[in-house]
C-alpha cells in the first residue's frame, strides 16, 4: 500500500519550539565549538511560501524550513538508515532481490529508498578478522567504481523525494584495521591502535583526511568512526579498533580523526557511547554489563567522546551496553538517562545520535517497530540497520499517530538529521583519481612508521640478513607484503634458513608463537608478546601495506622505531627506546 498521506500533518508549532532549542541549546551551558558549516549547493528552495528565506550557509535554518513541509511519512523515513542487499541501486541478483523483499518488501536498494523516504543507507561488507561480521548479512562493496555507481544511483532515487533537497546519507564502517568495509583500490590506514602507538594527532588527522577524501570520492558522506572506546579490558570485539588504554592520549587521537574526516566533508560518528572498551563481552551477541563506577566513567570512558564533540563531531553512535552506574538493566541505546541526560546534558552534544545496529542481539529483545520507537524516545535521531524496515517504519508511524511517540521528538530528530545533511552538502566530491594516490599513501605510511614499537631488543640495529618470514596460519598476503617491503629495503629474503621474523595477528594466542623466531611481531593488540621468547619483540598493531613497509624499514635498520605500546603488556615496557 502506498504510504503517501493525502492530508499530511505539519509540524509548525513543534518546529518553532525545536528551532529555538537547536539554536540556543537546552542545557544552560555554553555551546561547544562547532565546525563551520559549508555552503550548500544550489537546490530547490524548501522554504514554504511566505516564510523567511534561510541563507544557503545556514544548515539548521534550511533543515527547519524543509521539515515544516514534510508529511508524517517523510519525517519517519528521515530517521531510518537500513542496509540493503545488492551492489547496484537498481539492478540486483535474484538472491539480493529476495533478501530485500524479506527485509523491506521491495526488490532493489533504490526502491527501498523511495518507498520508505529514507534518510540514509549503510553500506555493509565483509573483511578478514572482522569482529563485527555477525551483523553483516550481505555485502554492498566490491571495488571503488562499483561503490561510486551504487551511491550515485541511491542519491538519484533520494533526490526525487520531498526531502530530496538534502543529500542522502550514505555511511559505512571504514575504521581501518580489522573493521574496513572497502579494502581494494583505496589507501588503507594502519589501525587506530597503531595511531595510538604513534601518539601524534597531526599524523592521525592527515591520514584520516586522506581517508575522508577517498570516501567522499566514492559518494560516502558518513563514516561510522572513529572508535572512542578506551581499551580498559582485553577485548577481541574492540581490541585494535581502539586508540588505546590511556583516556588522555585516546582523546587526542579521536579529535584528530574527527578533524581529518570532517575536513574532507565526511561526517564522523564517534562510537560506541558510553564506552565499549570497559567490557570484553560482544554486544553483537549479548548485552555487555559496564559495572564500573560513575567516577570511572567520568574519568576514563567519557573523555574521548568529549574530545570528539569538542572537535566538532557531527554524530555519536550509541551502544548496546548495560551501564549499571547510570541506568542499570537498560541498554544505553534505549536509555534516556544516558543519551539525553549524560550525552546531551553533561557532555553538551547537539548533533545526531545514531543507534548501533538494531539487528544486534540486545536490540532484538523487542520487535523492530517497538525497538525503533524506544530508541527514538531515548534520544537517538537515526535508527541504524533495523532487522525489518517495514516493521520499523510502520511502528514509528503508528506510534506518531497514536501519540505514544511525541511529534516534537520526531521533528527534533528529523531536523538534526537534515541539518547534518545540509552541513555536508556543500563539499564537492573529489575525483576518483585521488584514491590511493601518492599523497594519501604517504600520509598512511607516516602514521604507520610512527607506530612501530620495540618492546624487547635493540632500537638501532636491524636484523641480520638473509631473513625468513613466517606467520601464524592464514596470513600469506601479509607475509608477501612484508617480503616485498624487505626486498625493496635491500634485505634478502629466503624461504628458509634465514633470521626468522614471525608474524602474529588478530585472534592469535600463545600457541601461534614460534619459539625459535629471532623476531616476533604483533600486528594487532600486543598482549600475546608477553608469552613470546624471541630476543626481539616488535609491534605494528596492523597488517596494512603501510605497516609492513614501516616494519621492513625498521628490520633493515633504515628507520628508528618511535612508537609506544598504547596498552599495557605484562612484563614488558611500553618501549625500550626511551621515548
UniProtKB/TrEMBL annotation:
EC supergroup of this enzyme: hydrolase
Annotated region described as Disordered, given as residue ranges: 26-58
Keyword Iron-sulfur included in the entry's annotation: no
GO BP, sorted A to Z: carbohydrate metabolic process; peptidoglycan turnover
A molecular-function term among this protein's GO annotations: beta-N-acetylhexosaminidase activity
Ranges of compositional bias, category Low complexity: 37-58
Keywords, comma-separated and alphabetical: Glycosidase, Hydrolase
Keyword Hydrolase found: yes
Gene3D superfamilies the record matches: Glycoside hydrolase family 3 C-terminal domain, Glycoside hydrolase, family 3, N-terminal domain
Enzyme Commission numbers on file: 3.2.1.52
Domain Glycoside hydrolase family 3 N-terminal: 108-419
InterPro entries to which the protein is assigned, alphabetical: GH (IPR017853), Glyco_hydro_3_AS (IPR019800), Glyco_hydro_3_C_sf (IPR036881), Glyco_hydro_3_N (IPR001764), Glyco_hydro_3_N_sf (IPR036962), NagZ_Beta-hexosaminidase (IPR050226)
Catalytic activity: Hydrolysis of terminal non-reducing N-acetyl-D-hexosamine residues in N-acetyl-beta-D-hexosaminides
Lineage top rank: taxon: Bacteria
Stated family: Belongs to the glycosyl hydrolase 3 family.
The protein's name in its UniProt record: beta-N-acetylhexosaminidase
Source species of the chain: Micromonospora carbonacea
